[in-house]
Design a protein that fits this description.
Blueprint (H helix, E strand, L loop, with lengths): L10 H26 L8 E5 L5 H9 L4 E4 L2 H17 L7 E4 L8 H7 L2 E5 L2 H10 L6 E6 L16 H10 L3 E7 L8 H18 L8 E3 L6 H6 L4 E4 L1 H4 L12
Parallel strand pairs: 1-2, 1-8, 2-3, 3-4, 4-5, 5-6, 6-7
Helix pairs in contact: 4-5
Length: 257
């Protein structure tokens, strides 16, 4: 009989090692698809979705060179961002962190988002756009994406395709926002062809407006289970969480421990 052995590593050490391996596997998946599609190296940006994971998990990936992190919940993200700022003051990271807000935007949270994030992916109405603009520091534009609900799913955020022109014109006119592209969260599909179909529709929607907006070149689409299809259809950003960080921790445990 083979005796069972037990690791001497602590749970935190195990999770850290696992996160590193998962992160590297995710990068490999992206590189493989980029090569398969004959797209330029580095043309797809990985947004590591760190919601409900502690700041120390962000630090671990940042030390590996990951720079882009996505957050869904404003209060949790503010605590994490401040923790990271305090850390950088005493122990600088290799590269600056770029924070992406990828959750639903509440009007009362616009100030916090505008003041603390570099990118916002989920603008879907004029009121939100105007409030973000009013609170943004004029020294640096807030990089802005419009969320589109192409499948007309009830209860899901995002504009309809025929509303894009008006909202794009508004965002483009606001001095403290820079309109950069489109974002989508499609319903789950097991078929690769069906996954590609909705991503293709978003790409075509972007292409139909690009002549009016020279900086509109970003497609935030694709997550853990459909990122390959998204990359095939032109994704420039994929948003990946659980397959990198593992199961989520409670929201009140987001600080550095």
């Amino acid at each position: 009989m083979i005796a069972k052995t037990h690791s001497t590593r602590s749970p935190a050490q195990k999770n850290g090692s696992d996160s590193t391996c998962r992160y590297k596997r995710t990068l490999d998946r992206i590189r493989d698809q980029v090569q398969c599609c004959k797209r330029p190296e580095g043309s797809v940006r990985l947004i590591a979705v760190s919601k409900q994971h502690p700041a120390k998990a962000v630090v671990e990936l940042a030390r590996l060179g990951q720079t882009d992190f996505g957050e869904n919940y404003v209060q949790e993200s503010l605590e994490k961002i401040q923790s990271m700022k305090a850390l950088r003051a005493s122990d600088p990271l290799p590269l600056p962190i770029c924070w992406h807000f990828i959750g639903n935007i509440q009007s009362r949270k616009c100030r916090d988002i505008a003041e603390n994030f570099d990118w916002v992916h989920t603008i879907d109405n004029p009121k939100i756009a105007k409030r973000l603009n009013s609170f943004r520091d004029q020294s640096a534009s807030l990089q802005s994406l419009i969320q589109v609900n192409l499948q007309n799913e009830p209860g899901k955020a995002g504009i309809q395709a025929d509303e894009l022109t008006d909202l794009a014109e508004l965002i483009d006119s606001l001095p403290n926002l820079e309109f950069r592209g489109l974002m989508i969260i499609p319903r789950p599909e097991s078929s690769f062809d069906l996954q590609r179909k909705v991503f293709r529709e978003l790409r075509e929607l972007l292409e139909s407006h690009q002549s009016h907006y020279p900086n509109m070149n970003q497609l935030s689409m694709g997550m853990t289970n459909d990122m390959e299809a998204a990359i095939h259809e032109g994704a420039t950003m994929v948003r990946v969480g659980t397959s990198i960080f593992g199961p989520r921790t409670p929201k009140n445990q987001s600080g550095i421990q």
